[in-house]
Amino acid sequence: MGGAVSAGEDNDELIDNLKEAQYIRTELVEQAFRAIDRADYYLEEFKDNAYKDLAWKHGNIHLSAPCIYSEVMEALDLQPGLSFLNLGSGTGYLSSMVGLILGPFGVNHGVELHSDVIEYAKQKLDFFIKTSDSFDKFEFCEPSFVTGNCLEISPDCTQYDRVYCGAGVQKEHEDYMKNLLKVGGILVMPLEEKLTKITRTGPSAWETKKILAVSFAPLIQPNHADSGKSRLVHLPPVAVRSLQDLARIAIRGTIKKIIHQETMSKNGNGLKNPPRFKRRRVRRRRMETIVFLDKEVFASRISNPSDDNNNSEDLEEERREEEETKPSELKPDPPVNFLREKVLSLPLPDPLKYYLLYYREK
């Protein structure tokens, strides 16, 4: 699946293309996509393909096409504080983007069949938390992953506000998936070759919407050949945050508000100076007329005798302008992490400062 939008040179350009094609339609989803670089979830030797709108698979590792993830994120209608279950959580890319929207008081669980993929997802999650420039811009709902077949989830598990299944669901498993939802919840899954959104409107009432045609590998059926018994999957318990953790969230939130107020005051209610753009000279160009006649192509050129002189003068003036503006056209400085700077400037013991920063590397 994929190929719906043009490839990007980097993650931001890929998101721009998804927005232009109306796959990304809301600000929350856009922010989540921009915050997590898709290439970080690729193996090093395959990163050249990270910004193409294509699915990627290597062994058990799999990523859906960006246009599919965009439609899934939009259809889930995510809000802070909700609970989310990702069936076939894979690399954790989608779960991490969801976690940025759910915030610190959400629930973010994933079930993955392959233990090696779980380890890969944990490595990528750790890398994001420790090194990403985006982490401090959000309060993150860290995903928890368990190994097992998502068709064997313990019947006494809690229900969720949002559920996504990343493999093709057979018709006979539709009711099983629906029962994972709370009333008012949303389930998104590939069902009968269509990405489908199902909303639970009552204890036994549902609304179904087909989003787009898709092609997913089907869910793998449980294999009981070894023991003859089902291996129930027990989802993580809904953890209660410690007082210390709640204090960290509150302190970071307060500091962010102070930074925002300072920025607004400094920039005059948020109105920044417009960015400086290099003035572009408009060159006079020769007019060309191309005429198609049967299989022959005829081209004629209308030129002015003074064009060559004018073009030379324009080029020389443009070169001088480039020389004059070169110092200001250097690469911009990397963005400043104001939250980190503020925390490190507090009159607190270093261990407490680093706790507030989640022990992240600079």
Automatic annotation (TrEMBL):
SUPFAM superfamilies in the cross-refs = S-adenosyl-L-methionine-dependent methyltransferases (SSF53335)
Localization? Cytoplasm
Composition-biased stretches, type Acidic residues, lie in 310-321
- Name the Pfam families on file: PCMT (PF01135)
Give the start-end ranges of region Disordered.
302-336
Domain of life according to the entry: Eukaryota
Gene Ontology terms: cellular component:
cytoplasm
- Coiled-coil annotation reads none
UniProt keyword list = Cytoplasm
Q: Which GO molecular function terms does the record list?
A: protein-L-isoaspartate (D-aspartate) O-methyltransferase activity
Which CDD domains does the record cross-reference, listed alphabetically? AdoMet_MTases
Which family is this sequence assigned to?
Belongs to the methyltransferase superfamily. L-isoaspartyl/D-aspartyl protein methyltransferase family.
The Basic and acidic residues compositionally biased stretches are 322-332
- Main localization of the protein described in the UniProt heading: cytoplasm
What is this protein's name? PCMD2 protein
Q: Does the keyword Cytoplasm apply?
A: yes
Name the source organism. Trogon melanurus
